Amino acid sequence: MSNPSVLTAPAERLLARLRLPGKIALIGAAFLAVIALLFVFFIQAQWNAIRFSALERDGVALVRVVPEVMLPIQRHRGLLARLGSGDETLRGAVAEARAQADAAFELAAPVMATLGVELGVESDWKALGERWRTMTNAGASAPAEAFQAHSELLDAMLVFVSRVADRSNLTLDPDIDSFYLMDAAIVQLPNMVEMSAIMRGQSAGIAVRQTIAIDERIELAARLALFGDHAKMFDAGLAKVAGANPVAAARLDRQRDEVERNVKIFSDLLDRHFVRGAVAGIDGETLFTTGTRLVEAGHQLWRIVIEELDQVIAARVSAMQHRLWTVCAVVCALLLVVAYLFMVLRGAVARSAAAIEAGARRIATGDLASDVRCDTRDEFGEIALGLNRMRATLRESLEKERSAA
Questions:
Q1: 3-class DSSP state of 372
Q2: Each residue of 348-374: b (16+ CB within 10 Å) or e?
Q3: What pLDDT score does 55 carry?
Q4: pTM of the model as a whole
Q5: Phi and psi dihedrals of 393, rounded to 5?
Q6: Angle ∠(324,247,177) on CA atoms, nearest 5
């Protein structure tokens, strides 16, 4: 027998101290420990992935309330622009828009008090509400200043949406369809909606006073171009969604077509009366109503995208949970089968070894009348067969010696 190597010597010394069933038990326990460790790692990875996506859904729930607050504030800004340009009939509508915004902040409060605290953005939202109350309680201010203050508040809300996305893992979304839906809900649509609302307010105020400065003309042209860029990025992202999840993209098609139709109508009006042509021939009410159709269509598309994003993430969470429980059930069943086979093997080996040991002892004491009983077809069976051949040979030799005597 060759000497054990340096690597195998410790294991051989350990195994040499154990009986055969103990050796099998030790090897089986080591094997099961490795399987259990890998299984724990798998469960941990799956659970972390589920928690990751569940946190995304919390972010979506927070983002969902933002359009409901932004819409009345945008309307309030646009109406103030017309009022500041001389349309005194709008005071009641301005007060109504303010009340709607106040109510929207109140409705958002419970969500912010729970999920906002979880994501660490509750104080940011409270600061936005305080800015709104301070601005509206300050009383009348110059039209340009009021418009700027509203726009800064709404820009801060867009920053809030981005912060929520960062805190809730939405910006790290791993799947193509949900990633581009996230991009539409967090970046493209909020900016498109806000730019369309700004253009509505600016152009309606200009239409009321029927004069436009050159810098206002340039600004509207630049905003139209930037709006078009965001629309192209939105369409490109939606094409990616359609490639990965045609069902989800199809649910957006109808409202997207409605937005595109209103974009064309509103942009044609701006281009004809403000960017290229004269202000004459368009009144503030008509322009504001046309712009409002676009703003509201954009908000509706934003809501639909948010809901679709939530459904896609929820389906992913459900699939991961189903996969986790399925794998757990399969692994547990296999471990039970392996444990059962291991126990059977250990018992069979122990019985075979005991039978061979008993037979060898009988032969050693001179009992050559009975065979060594071991019916297995493995190495134990071959050992028993060899012992039986040896027993028969010894018996035959003894019988010949007795006959010769």
A1: coil
A2: ebeebbebbeebbebbeeeebeeebeb
A3: 96
A4: 0.80
A5: -65, -45
A6: 60
